[in-house]
Amino acid sequence: MPFKNAGSVSGFDRRDLIIGTAGLAALGATLRGSEIAVAQTSPGAASAPPSSPSTATPGQVVVERRGAVLLVGIDRPQTQNRMDPPVIIGLGKAYYQLEHDDDLRVAVLHGIGPNFCMGVDLPAFLAGQKAGILPPKDSDYIGPLGLRPPVRTKPVVVAAQGGTQAAGHELFLAADIRVAASDAKFAQPEVTRGIFPGGGATIRMTREAGWANAMRYMLTGEEWGAEEARRLGLVQEVTPPGKQLDRAIELAERIAAAAPLGVRATLASAHQLTAGEDPALLALAAEFQRINQSEDAKEGQTAFREGRKPVFRGQ
């Protein structure tokens, strides 16, 4: 198998209306583009600026071990780190590696380039489904959105910069501690595109930001910045641009230095508080599928492609 270092992907059956490129034929059944590369350079190194999301270049997930810390980087800057099948599968495999390697105690999730993640590359995602790549068949996989079992029991610290929107923001919310650069821009814009957030934001953002704060942004689709995210409790620390990954690693190293049994027990105990959310998380896929088949969803996709304002009719 080309996945050299870790796990696989879980319930990414949500579809984002972030439009990317359609041709992922090169993936086929071989999953060649899905490999996880072991980083030989700093994950914070500068990347080329993002180009149009119409590129068909597959992404990858870059994994680097630093003692007991596993750095997990989304490496598809040419599409603003939109998630295609290789990225989705690579994230799940990295989380599986974190969970099953006794020498690893914590992960740091980050995006390589100017953005953290602008969502799902819809055409690539649909091509992956058609090719049978998604949903993943791999057993060495833990879903990074944590929508269904198996779930990880070790903590994840996330570092975000630039665009962090749609499914990218839901991936951000699924982490345990969140650091953001001051230039980070967050949004859950799905309602402006005929759908709704199907990757956990309706539950996690409401829980952490409070009902009215969450509804203020999810029902309007408007963008908010890093300081507002900190005010809402969605971000724990804000750093100057370029320093977010360093700070996330510092926090992860402090976690790694603590007693591992105590850390996992703390996380498990805290999850008891949110155990009632599990049925709601599991129900997201069916509800998203229903809304995604609506006429409004089709209109949202068409309007987004055509660069015009959609006309929704509630159908």
Description:
The protein is of the alpha/beta class and 315 residues long. The protein is 35% helix and 14% strand. Strands 1-2-3-4-5-7-10 form a seven-stranded mixed beta sheet, sandwiched between helices. A three-stranded mixed beta sheet has the order 6-8-9. Helix 1 links the parallel strand 3 and strand 4. Helix 4 (201-209) packs across helix 5 (211-218). The longest helix has 16 residues, at 85-100. 50% of the residues are buried.
What summary fits the major beta sheet?
Answer: 7 strands, mixed
Give the helices and strands as they follow along the chain: EEEHEHEEHEEHHEHEHHHH
**Mean pLDDT reading:** 83
Instruction: Look at the helices and sheets and give the structural class.
Output: alpha/beta
Set down the secondary structure blueprint.
Layout: E1 36-38, E2 60-66, E3 69-75, H1 85-100, E4 106-111, H2 122-130, E5 156-160, E6 163-165, H3 167-173, E7 177-181, E8 185-187, H4 201-209, H5 211-218, E9 224-225, H6 226-232, E10 237-239, H7 244-257, H8 260-273, H9 278-292, H10 295-306
Parallel strand pairs: 1-2, 3-4, 4-5, 5-7, 6-8, 7-10
Antiparallel strand pairs: 2-3, 8-9
Helix pairs in contact: 4-5
